[in-house]
Amino acid sequence: KSLSEESMGRMKQRLESRNICRWRGKPIFVRHQTQKEIERESGVPQHDLDRVKKPEWLVPIGVCTHLGCAPIANAGECGGHHCPCHGSHYDASGRVRKGPAPANLEIPNYEFIEEDLVVVG
Ligand code: FES
Questions:
Q1: β partners of residue 90
Q2: 83 close to ligand 1 (CB < 6 Angstrom)
Q3: How many CB atoms lie within 10 A of CB 102?
Q4: 8-state DSSP, 84
Q5: Residues in contact with 84: Cβ distance below 8 Å, sequence separation at least 6, in sequence order
């Protein structure tokens, strides 16, 4: 009998334009990126394309890298996420652009198993 994805600590998720799902107790902020966003974010250090498997889908862990609060998706001054706890702003690629957060939103291991279906973990 094969183990389910969940029992192996993995999560299977059908992608929708913007949704939040949970993986190992952490939120994952799935985000569909427009061509304009892909172009805008490609000029910043740590290239957007180094953070995605498909440019049009971002799959970061939604935990602020400052002190672990949950950032608000689709908010803030930089086109991505805002953590109101101490004022960190992340861009559409989940890279920190302003505030005390020391690192970009973490990208978990994930793989596409269908066009719009990922397994995280
Ligand atoms: S926990 Fe997010 S800015 Fe401090």
A1: 81, 96
A2: yes
A3: 9
A4: T
A5: 69, 72
Q: Looking at ligand 1, which residue's alpha carbon is closest to its atom 3?
A: 86
Binding site membership of 24 for ligand 1 (Cβ less than 6 Å)? no
Does the C-beta of 100 come closer than 6 Å to ligand 1? Answer: yes
* CA angle (105, 8, 62) in 5-degree steps: 15
Q: Kindly tell me the sign of the dihedral angle through the C-alpha atoms of 119, 18, 91, 37.
A: positive
Which atom of ligand 1 lies nearest, measured to the CA of 67?
Answer: 1
Q: What is the pTM of this model?
A: 0.77
Centre of ligand 1 from the C-alpha of residue 103, in Å: 11
Please report the pLDDT score of residue 95 as a whole number: 93
Mean pLDDT of 46-67: 91
Per-residue pLDDT band at 2 (split at 50, 70, 90): very low
Which distant-in-sequence residues (6+ apart) come within 8 Å of 105 by Cβ? 29, 60, 61, 62, 63, 64, 65, 71, 81, 90, 94, 95, 96
Consecutive H or E run containing 27: strand 26-32
